[in-house]
């Protein structure tokens, strides 16, 4: 019986984190996309691209976690956990980059460029989207850290 | 005799990486600051703040590395390496955030907001500053990874 580190893959905490990631990412995507011409701005396109990568990744791993939780059997192969850790770290860096770009551009639009780029409602939607992207990034970092923490114990079993 | 992982603290590769970080950070700061009213924009202020944190950190660790290289004696205490790793990771995330913000805002200025915010020369200076910040981030990530890699071997010695 391996020790169950809460938050690492195959636990219910991990399932909750993954679902949170997917939820915040979908929220960020919806605030950004619905009825807004986001493709006019580079950094908003970047955010949409990254969220399009994050959502399937989080949902897939949520399904894996749900399977482990309900079957009550975690199969942790070193190679699979290694791939998950690397993917998590790369997506976490990309999410941070996208969230910061969106936040800084929407702030610049509001404070400097004025109402010529976004009306009052649009501006607050861009800001909400950036906030959701930041929340999604923090959860993504959490699961990356938990899985990284798990890695040495898997190595020592080999 | 401990194994010398190239790039971890106390090696000449680490000294080179730290000097590179400091150099690119100073370049980014100079492109941003000299003769430019950067404090009008939030994300440029953020970049300057983060570079003001990164430069002393990199230079201090460069001095430690230089001392280790020339004395040919590395003293690696677990606690000290742990502090360095945590500091490196936090600074690496902050550098990425600052670099992305600067890059996206300067891109937005050039493509959308037009010449009202920056003349031709200023715009290219902002862009150069963002590029230097990205290079500094990549070196910062490199040294964070190398030092993280060193950590488990120090734990196993205890």
UniProtKB/TrEMBL annotation, chains A, B:
<keyword id="KW-0472">Membrane</keyword>
<comment type="similarity">
    <text>Belongs to the Casparian strip membrane proteins (CASP) family.</text>
</comment>
<keyword id="KW-0812">Transmembrane</keyword>
<protein>
    <recommendedName>
        <fullName>CASP-like protein</fullName>
    </recommendedName>
</protein>
<feature type="domain" description="Casparian strip membrane protein">
    <location>
        <begin position="10"/>
        <end position="138"/>
    </location>
</feature>
<feature type="transmembrane region" description="Helical">
    <location>
        <begin position="20"/>
        <end position="41"/>
    </location>
</feature>
<dbReference type="InterPro" id="IPR045009">
    <property type="entry name" value="CASPL-5"/>
</dbReference>
<comment type="subunit">
    <text>Homodimer and heterodimers.</text>
</comment>
<feature type="transmembrane region" description="Helical">
    <location>
        <begin position="130"/>
        <end position="151"/>
    </location>
</feature>
<dbReference type="Pfam" id="PF04535">
    <property type="entry name" value="CASP_dom"/>
</dbReference>
<feature type="transmembrane region" description="Helical">
    <location>
        <begin position="77"/>
        <end position="99"/>
    </location>
</feature>
<dbReference type="GO" id="GO:0005886">
    <property type="term" value="C:plasma membrane"/>
</dbReference>
<dbReference type="InterPro" id="IPR006702">
    <property type="entry name" value="CASP_dom"/>
</dbReference>
<keyword id="KW-1133">Transmembrane helix</keyword>
<keyword id="KW-1003">Cell membrane</keyword>
